[in-house]
């Protein structure tokens, strides 16, 4: 990791460590080091730096809330806002615990998209009517209730169909898919 033109630049070792952690953040420094061909102290030092600079924000667990009996209604709420007040509207939505994610979008008009959860449809309605609609700058609200989640994932660090195998001398060795060996990495 180094700075170039006041920007943080990650090398192949840093990116490889992040890719491994995305797959399993419980991995030890030693096991990551063995997989990447570097020492555990190198992994430790780089992870601590990435934590210090906010690249690694948290080590967390993904819980299937439905399997533990915490079913919630999920909705995507699109808020059309006055352009002069759209940032304030988005910031207000970010502070509400029922709102999981907030995005801004520009299409034919400025809109804010929020992923919202509620225990019931009635509570979702009350939330929109009493918390979202009264915000200054809100012009219109459209709500889409999610009926089935097909995919939810984080953006992978390595999105190529190659496998990270080892790092030697700051050079990442990538293994291309091999269909004869039955490799699971296949071209789309």
Summary, kept brief:
With 188 residues, the chain is α+β, with helices and mostly antiparallel strands.
Q: Can you walk me through this structure?
A:
The chain has 188 residues and is α+β, with helices and mostly antiparallel strands. It folds into two domains: 59 residues, Arc Repressor Mutant, subunit A, CATH 1.10.10.10; 77 residues, 2-Layer Sandwich (Alpha-Beta Plaits). The chain is built from five helices and eight strands, in the order ββαααβαββαβββ. Strand 4 and strand 5 form a beta hairpin. Helix 2 packs across helix 3. The longest helix has 13 residues. The C terminus is likely disordered.
Give the number of DSSP strands.
Answer: 8
Q: What is the gyration radius calculated from CA atoms?
A: 22 Å
Instruction: Write down the CATH topology of the largest domain.
Output: Alpha-Beta Plaits
**CATH top level assignment of the largest domain:** Alpha Beta
SSE map:
Layout: E1 2-4, E2 7-9, H1 12-23, H2 29-36, H3 40-52, E3 73-81, H4 86-94, E4 99-106, E5 110-118, H5 121-132, E6 138-145, E7 163-168, E8 171-175
Antiparallel strand pairs: 1-2, 3-5, 3-6, 4-5, 7-8
Helix pairs in contact: 2-3
Primary descriptors:
Arc Repressor Mutant, subunit A; four-stranded antiparallel β-sheet; 188 residues; alpha+beta; two-stranded antiparallel sheet; Alpha-Beta Plaits; single chain; 29% helix; 8 strands; disordered C terminus; 2 domains
């Amino acid at each position: 990791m180094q700075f170039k033109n006041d920007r943080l630049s990650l090398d192949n070792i840093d990116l490889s460590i992040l890719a491994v952690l995305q797959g399993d953040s419980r991995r030890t420094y030693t096991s990551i080091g063995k997989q990447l061909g570097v020492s555990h102290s190198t992994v430790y030092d780089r992870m601590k730096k990435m934590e210090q600079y906010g690249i690694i924000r948290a080590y967390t667990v993904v819980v299937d809330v439905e399997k533990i009996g915490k079913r919630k209604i999920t909705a995507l709420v699109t808020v059309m806002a006055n352009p002069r007040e759209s940032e304030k509207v988005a910031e207000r939505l970010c502070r509400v615990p029922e709102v999981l994610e907030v995005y801004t979008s520009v299409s034919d008009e400025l809109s804010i998209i929020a992923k919202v959860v509620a225990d019931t449809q009635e509570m979702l309605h009350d939330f929109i009517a009493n918390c979202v609609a009264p915000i200054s700058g809100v012009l219109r609200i459209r709500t889409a209730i999610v009926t089935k989640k097909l995919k939810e994932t984080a953006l992978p660090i390595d999105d190529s169909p190659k496998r990270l195998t080892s790092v030697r001398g700051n050079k990442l060795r990538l293994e291309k898919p091999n269909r004869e060996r039955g490799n699971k990495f296949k071209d789309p």
